[in-house]
Amino acid sequence: MTDAPLLRLSDVHVRLTGSHILQGVDLSVRRGGVTALLGRNGAGKTTTVKAVLGLVPCTGTIEFAGASGRIERIDGRRTHEIVRRGIGYAPEDREVFAGLTVAENLALAERRNSAHHHDRVFELFPELKQRSRQLAGTLSGGQQQMVAIARLLLNDNQLLLIDEPTKGLAPLLVAEVADVLARAAEEVTILLVEQNLTVVQRMAQDAVVVDQGRVAWSGPAGDLLADADRTRELLGVATSGGGGRL
Amino acid sequence: MTTLVLLTITGLGLAALYFLVASGLSLIFGLMDVLNFAHGAFLTIGAYGTWWAAGNLPGAGESGWGFVLAVVFGVAVGTLVAALIELLLIRPLYQRHIEQVLVTVGLSLALVALVRAVWGADPRPFPRPGWARGTTSILGANVPNDRFLLIVSAVVVLVAVLAFLRFTRVGLIIRAGVENRTMVTALGIDVRKAFTLVFAIGGAFAALAGALGGIYLGSISPGQGTSLLIFAFIVVVIGGMSSITGTAAAAVLVGLVQQFANYYAASGVGDLSVVLLLAVVLLARPSGLRARLA
Predict the structure, then answer these.
(1) What pLDDT is attached to residue A4?
(2) Which residues of chain B have a Cβ shorter than 8 Å from any chain A Cβ?
(3) Are the CB atoms for B262 and B269 separated by under 8 Å?
């Protein structure tokens, strides 16, 4: 085990259609556990995740320590090459393939350079096995989220980038998704973009707050959430001990 | 009755030709968002490749297995040219739609000009195997055998494409890529390989259409591909961009409407009828008969 971060962004800038969205993001994700990426709407959280994956053009340095443990720059590489280094991605709106069945969605996610853990996936989401021949587009939002997370857990990943997994879900499903992610976090590092501070409070050890395209705060998640004034200042919401929503 | 049978089977033969050209266009547009105006040139290359091979390639000829070898050669050349064009000219221009249109339009003009420069502008008689020159009597109508060749070829291609999309991993990637290319790459898949494959497959089908079209029409000329491409685009739009079964249904509709209108109204009215059909379908169902790859 090494103290070197699993993922490190240094002075990352993203400019899209004339807007300077990320303005020099510096952040580190340590190996193991959950790091929450927080911030108000439009702060640059999703863009940060997309920059890591090469889904948006960026400048600056992004380094990742893959399965080999060797730290290498991944900025400028193509998305599929970055993902094959052991990074899984669940986007904000799930983006399951509506015209494919559940089984086909999972089959598509099987990476060549990885073992495939169907047993683990079906143990966590037995409903997906029952619905394996159903078109993903006909699933409920919660079931689609299960497919999106199942795609991540199917392969051996070093890091999961999960963007608002509880968005739009009923409270019962939020708890279920959080349970699954907490179990996943025992085996793999997660960078979690999340608006639900109750989920953050339960899962995250570290937190990074992005504001107007820059990192405004980083440190232990517990410290942030315990400080009501700071959360109000940085996130615009009071935690009052029980979490909250951005 | 004999006229009806003859018109129907001839219309289906024409539909088969349209389908062979349009299926590749549909796949390419569905997956890659590329409107390939050079697609007609692949047809011309396939036709001239087959014609050249029948007269010059050792082992190839104008009948029997020799002709089959000539067709294989023509299709192989069309496939190779399509793959090279994708790799060298289309790939650097993904997401740059205007540049893509300019390049493919330019290519269609340049490739046709090249063929014209090498073999001249005049139509060339196309080799027709003995069986294709004969007729088969169906309900009293003497139907030229080449119609059956076209129809069977198109049905085989349709079944093969559907099976390829349904049962292979590359087919799965293509179906997913039509929905959301970005997410496919975010799963660690190099979608560009699928792009090249789809472009090559489209080129192969168009080249096959060139060879079979030569048999159907009896001759080939440099501008033939461009003329057929217009109807192929109409078929793709009517069928629903990126739907293979929709393309097949639209090809049958266009082929039959064109054939019957040309016979019962006047020669040339068929083309006008197809344009009217396009307008009606677009007004009633703007996304075409089917809007999904299947």
Answers:
(1) 81
(2) 169, 172-173, 175-176, 178-180, 182-191, 292-294
(3) yes
Q: May I ask the CATH class of domain B2-284?
A: mainly alpha
Identify residue B282 by its one-letter amino acid code. L
For chain B, what are the domain ranges? 2-284
Phi, psi of A12 (to 5 degrees): -90, 125
Of A79, A111, A151, the CB nearest to B185: A79
What is the three-class DSSP state of A208?
strand
Judged by CB atoms closer than 8 Å, whether chains meet at B186 and A55 is answered as yes
- Are the C-beta atoms of residues B221 and B124 closer than 8 Å to each other? yes
pLDDT of amino acid B61: 83
B57: its two tokens: 């390639």
Angstroms from A228 CA to nearest CA on chain B: 37
Mean pLDDT of chain B: 91
Structure confidence at residue A12 as a pLDDT band (50, 70, 90) = very high
How many Cβ pairs within 8 Å bridge chains A and B?
Answer: 56
What's the predicted TM-score (pTM) here? 0.86
**Angstroms from B187 CA to nearest CA on chain A:** 6
The tens digit of pLDDT for each residue in B112-170 reads 999 999 999 999 999 988 888 889 999 888 999 999 999 999 999 999 999 999 999 99
- Which chain B residues have a beta carbon less than 8 Å from that of A111? 187-188
For β-strands A7-16 and A19-29, DSSP reports them as antiparallel
CA distance A239 to chain B (A): 34
Asked whether the beta carbons of residue B172 and residue A104 sit closer than 8 angstroms, the reply is yes
pLDDT per residue as tens digits for the range B4-16: 999 999 999 999 9
Delineate the domains of chain A, giving CATH numbers in brackets.
1-86+157-246 (3.40.50.300), 95-156 (no CATH)
Q: How far is the C-alpha of A197 from the C-alpha of A235, rounded, in Å?
A: 10
**Among all residues of chain B, which has the CA nearest to that of A50?**
B186
For the residues of B129-187, what is the DSSP string, one character each?
-HHHHSEEEETTEEEEHHHHHHHHHHHHHHHHHHHHHHHSHHHHHHHHHHH-HHHHHHT
Element (H, E) at B290: none
Residue A14: both structure tokens together: 């993203």
Tell me the chain B residues in contact with residue A67 when contact means C-beta distances shorter than 8 Å.
none
Report chain A residues whose CB lies below 8 A from the CB of B176: 97, 100, 104, 108
Give which of B182, B183, B195, B293 to mutate to test A binding, by max A Cβ within 10 Å: B183
Q: How many CB atoms lie within 10 A of CB B92?
A: 10
Task: Enumerate residue ranges in chain B where pLDDT < 70.
Answer: 291-294
Distance separating alpha carbons of residues B48 and B222, to the nearest angstrom? 8
